[in-house]
Amino acid sequence: MSDTPLPPQVVIRSVVSDQFVGTTAIADDAIATGVPPETKLIIVNPTITVPPPQFQLRRVDGTQLVYDIFAGNDYVRDGEPEHVRGLVFAFANPPAQKFVFTYVEKHSAYTIVKLGTNDALTDPYSEEIADAERSIRLQPLDKLGNSGYHPGQLFTVKDAEDEPQK
Length: 166
Hints:
The protein is an all-beta fold. It has a single domain (9-159), classed as Trefoil (Trefoil (Acidic Fibroblast Growth Factor, subunit A)), CATH 2.80.10. The protein is 2% helix and 41% strand. It is built from 1 helix and 13 strands. It has one helix at 29-32, and strands spanning 9-14, 19-25, 40-44, 55-61, 66-71, 74-78, 88-91, 98-104, 109-114, 119-122, 134-135, 137-140, 155-159. The strands form 2 sheets. The protein has a 7-stranded antiparallel beta barrel with strand order 1-2-3-7-6-5-4. The protein is globular.
């Protein structure tokens, strides 16, 4: 399964919380400073409506699972100004960032790492914020010895057509 191309239209779900990844408008002016209008945060949101939010993947490397990620018509990449570095956004303007999807058989899930780095998409899940929208972060990939990867850095990626509607 690790060499099998991913479908072009997918839903992404955090393994640590079993909740969908999606987007939301930026409501915090402190975060929004220096971020273009119409930019959205990539979040994990337990109150997602039906159908689940969809991402588009465009494969950019035939030798490994490297993809540009889009949220609708928006380009997914991390923030550039210092105060938003580490957060992941959907921007109206290009470029999209390239991400390497690596299947972790033990967990039946993927790590999603920014190409050329060790920074992985991370759901900062904890019981204290379980009911809140959580911003996806780029944090160093955390391999936990024989037990595998940090669960907040594991995501299921399924064809949008295969995801059951609620």
